[in-house]
Design a protein that fits this description.
With 568 residues, the chain is α/β, with parallel strands linked by helices. Helix content is 55%, strand content 10%. The protein has a four-stranded parallel sheet, sandwiched between helices. Strands 1-3-2 form a three-stranded antiparallel sheet. A three-stranded antiparallel sheet has the order 6-7-8. Helix 15 (385-403) packs across helix 16 (410-427). The longest helix has 25 residues, at 226-250. The structure holds one RNA strand of 75 nucleotides.
RNA sequence: GCCCCUAUAGCUCAGUGGAUAGAGCAAUGGUCUCCGAAACCAUUUGCGGAGGUUCGAUUCCUCCUAGGGGUACCA
C-alpha cells in the first residue's frame, strides 16, 4: 500500500468513527477541497442529510467537533456541508518521501499481479506497408501497458501480431508480377512496395479483373504454392528489417513476433471447432457465423473460394494464446476503427462457450486525422514514422547546440529528447481521442511535453549532483511550505496512478500525473531555494524531496518508454 | 439507414456525482551577478443544444445537432 493510501485510510477511519458510518462508505465519499480551502481532505455530508434529518452544515459541524487531533490528522473544520480535514504536512512528507527513497526504482511497483499472465497484442504493423505514425500509437500505448502490468507484478507476454497474411498479399503479388522491378525492390523495399500497392488500387478502378487475380494469388499462397510463398517470404523479410530499425530507435521489444501466417496450420481446426458447435452457416457462398440476433453483421470465416479472413486467424490466435498462456487477460491494442471486428470476435468466442471470452479486451485508440481526412495506405496518404523521428531528433540537436553547446554525448541526448517528444505526444491524452497530425505540435518541446519532463528530471539531477551525499535522516517536519506539500502529495499518489492506468488500460493517467508533478516541482523550485547555505537541516529535507521527485519522474518515464536524462 | 466513439477557452487537451471548471500552445508584459530560462509569474476567453434522475450534473440517462469511424468475402 502506498504511503498516501495509508494516510487517506487514516483520515477515513477518523471520519468514520466521528460520523458512525462504515469506513468503506466514508472512503467512497472522501474528496478533496478546492484550491482556496486550506485542507487536505474533504468529507461531504449531503448524503447524510436524509437519514439524519438534519441540514448538511449542522452535520458537518457535529462531525468536525468529534474529530480529535492525533496521528496524521491535525484538525477538522466544518465549512458549508463539508468537513475539511487537515493532515500533518511533516508526517505526510516523512512517510511519502521515505517510502519513495527506500523503494527507489521499485517505487510504484507491486506484486499484486503475481501468478497472473496478461497477453498484450500491440504494434502489429502490416507487412509490405510503411511503418507510419498510425502504427506508432499502438506501439507506444501497448509498450506502456506492458511496462505498467509488469510493474504490478503480472507476467506479460507482448505479442507483435504482424499483418503478414491476407488478401493484400494477393494484391502485392499481382502487382509485382505485372509491373515489378527487382532493382527497385532491392534498393528501397518498403517505399517501392507501397508504390505498387497504390498503383494496384489506382489500376483496379479501370481493370476490376485485377481483384480476381489478387484473390487467386492469395488462395494459391494459402494452398502453399511455391512461387507465391517465395515472394511472400521476401516481402516479409524486407519489411521486418525495416520494422526492426524503427523498434530499435523506439527501444521497443516483443516477447513474440508471431504474425497471422503463424496460425495458418491451425485454421482448419479452428473452423472445424465452430462447425462442431453448429454455429457456422453457408451464406452467399461464404462460411459465416450469423450474428444478426446480436445486431451485428455476420463474422466471416471463409470466403466463397474457401480462403480465410482476418477473423478466422484472430479466432485461431485467441485459442492459441489461451492454450499457451492461460491468460488472466488478453488485450488487443488496436485502433478504434476495428471495434466492430473485436465485438464480433468476442461474441463468437462467447457463443462457442468459452468462459475466457470475457477476459478478452479490445483497447481501442483514436485515429490519426489529417486536415484533409483519414490516412489511407491505399491512396499512399501516409506519414513515415522514420521521417517524423528524424525531424524530431534534428530539431532537438539544434536546440542543444543553442542552449547547451558544451554538453557531452550530444547525439545520444538529441535522440532521447526528439524521440521522447514524439512518444510522449502519443501518450499524454486519453487514448480514445483522435489525433490531428500537426508538425508544430509534434515538434514542440515546451509546455506539456516529453522534453519538459526530461528537463525537470535533469534539473533535479543537477541539484542533487551539486549537493553531494544525501542525509539518511533529514528533518521532514521542516517541509511545511504549501508548494512542498503539493509536491509531496503527487509523489505519494504515484503508485495509485499506476494501478489506475492498469485498470483502465490508460497510460495517459501516468503521463498526466508526471506533468502535474513536474509543474508542481518547477513552481516550487522557482519560489524556494533548495541548496540553502544557512540552514543545513532544511537543505537536507528539501534535497530528499528533490530526490523523491527525480525518482518518480524516472520511474514514470521508464513506464512510458521515455528516457530520463541526467543532463540535456 | 443502423451501430460505435467524440464534443470543455482562439487552438490542443485535463477534470473524482459535490464548494470559485484547470493546464499547455498562441498573444502581451515581467523574472537569469541567484540551485539548469526546454523554466517560472501575470493578463483574457469556456462545459454543443433540450429534457430527465439527484439535495447537488461538465460528469449518469434520453433525445437532438455537429465531427470522426464502422457497417459480408481488406486488415
Amino acid at each position: 500500500m502506498s504511503a498516501f493510501s495509508e494516510i487517506r485510510a487514516e483520515v477515513a477511519t477518523a471520519l468514520a468513527s466521528a460520523s458512525g458510518l462504515p469506513v468503506s462508505e466514508v472512503d467512497g465519499l472522501l474528496t478533496w477541497p478546492p484550491p482556496g480551502v486550506a485542507a487536505d481532505f474533504a468529507f461531504p455530508c449531503f448524503t447524510l442529510a436524509k437519514t439524519l434529518r438534519k441540514a448538511p452544515p449542522a452535520i458537518a459541524t457535529e462531525i468536525a467537533a468529534k474529530i480529535t487531533s492525533g496521528g496524521i490528522v491535525v484538525s477538522a473544520a466544518a465549512l458549508g456541508g463539508y468537513v475539511n480535514v487537515r493532515t500533518d504536512p511533516g508526517k505526510q512528507s516523512a512517510r511519502v518521501i521515505a517510502q519513495a527513497l527506500r523503494e527507489g526504482d521499485r517505487y510504484g511497483m507491486s506484486t499484486e499481479g503475481a501468478a497472473k499472465t496478461i497477453v498484450i497484442d500491440y504494434s502489429s504493423p502490416n507487412i509490405a506497408k510503411p511503418f507510419s505514425i498510425a502504427h506508432l500509437r499502438s506501439t507506444v500505448i501497448g509498450r506502456a501497458l506492458v511496462n505498467v502490468y509488469r510493474a504490478l507484478g503480472y507476467t506479460v507476454v507482448g505479442v507483435n501480431h504482424l499483418g503478414d497474411w491476407g488478401t493484400q498479399f494477393g494484391k502485392l503479388i499481382t502487382a509485382f508480377k505485372a509491373w515489378g522491378d527487382e532493382k527497385q525492390l532491392e534498393e528501397r523495399p518498403i517505399r517501392y512496395l507501397l508504390e505498387l500497392y497504390v498503383k494496384f488500387h489506382a489500376e483496379v478502378k479501370s481493370k476490376p479483373e485485377l481483384d480476381d487475380d489478387a484473390r487467386r494469388w492469395f488462395k494459391r499462397l494459402e494452398d502453399g504454392d511455391a512461387d507465391a510463398r517465395a515472394l511472400w517470404q521476401r516481402f516479409r523479410d524486407l519489411s521486418l528489417t525495416e520494422f526492426n530499425r524503427v523498434y530499435d530507435m523506439l527501444g521497443v521489444t516483443f516477447d513474440r513476433f508471431s504474425g497471422e501466417a503463424f496460425y495458418n496450420d491451425r485454421l482448419d481446426a479452428t473452423v472445424a471447432r465452430v462447425e462442431a458447435k453448429g454455429l457456422a452457416t453457408r451464406s452467399q457462398d461464404a462460411l459465416v457465423v450469423d450474428l444478426e440476433p446480436y445486431g451485428m453483421p455476420p463474422c466471416l470465416l471463409r470466403k466463397a473460394d474457401d480462403a480465410t479472413l482476418y477473423a478466422t486467424r484472430d479466432l485461431a490466435a485467441a485459442y492459441y494464446r489461451h492454450e499457451q498462456f492461460q491468460f488472466h487477460k488478453n488485450l488487443y491494442v488496436v485502433g478504434s476503427d476495428q471495434t466492430l471486428h473485436f465485438r464480433q470476435l468476442f461474441k463468437v468466442l462467447e457463443l462457442l462457450g468459452e468462459p475466457w471470452a470475457a477476459s478478452c479486451v479490445h483497447v481501442p485508440f483514436g485515429l490519426i486525422q489529417f486536415k484533409d481526412g483519414k490516412m489511407s495506405t491505399r491512396e499512399g496518404k501516409v506519414v513515415f514514422l522514420e521521417e517524423v523521428l528524424a525531424k524530431a531528433v534534428e530539431l532537438a540537436a539544434d536546440i542543444i547546440r543553442e542552449k547547451n553547446p558544451e554538453l557531452a554525448s550530444r547525439g545520444d541526448v538529441a535522440k532521447a529528447v526528439g524521440i521522447g517528444a514524439v512518444v510522449f505526444n502519443d501518450l499524454k491524452n486519453r487514448r480514445i481521442k483522435d489525433v490531428l497530425f500537426d508538425w508544430n505540435e509534434l515538434l514542440n518541446f515546451d509546455g506539456k511535453t516529453g522534453p519538459y519532463l526530461q528537463y525537470t528530471h535533469a534539473r533535479a539531477a543537477s541539484i542533487l549532483r551539486k549537493a553531494g551525499a544525501l542525509s539518511s535522516t533529514p528533518p521532514y517536519e521542516r517541509l511545511v511550505e504549501p508548494e512542498e506539500s503539493a509536491v509531496v502529495k503527487l509523489v505519494g499518489q504515484f503508485p495509485d496512478r499506476i494501478r489506475a492506468a492498469a485498470d483502465e488500460y490508460e497510460p495517459s493517467m501516468v503521463s498526466q500525473h508526471l506533468l502535474d508533478l513536474a509543474e508542481a516541482f518547477n513552481t516550487y523550485y522557482n519560489h524556494h531555494r533548495i541548496l540553502l547555505d544557512d540552514d543545513a537541516p532544511l537543505r537536507e529535507a528539501r534535497l530528499a524531496l528533490t530526490a523523491s521527485v527525480k525518482q518518480v519522474l524516472k520511474n514514470g518515464l521508464s513506464l512510458l518508454g521515455v528516457v530520463a536524462l541526467e543532463e540535456m
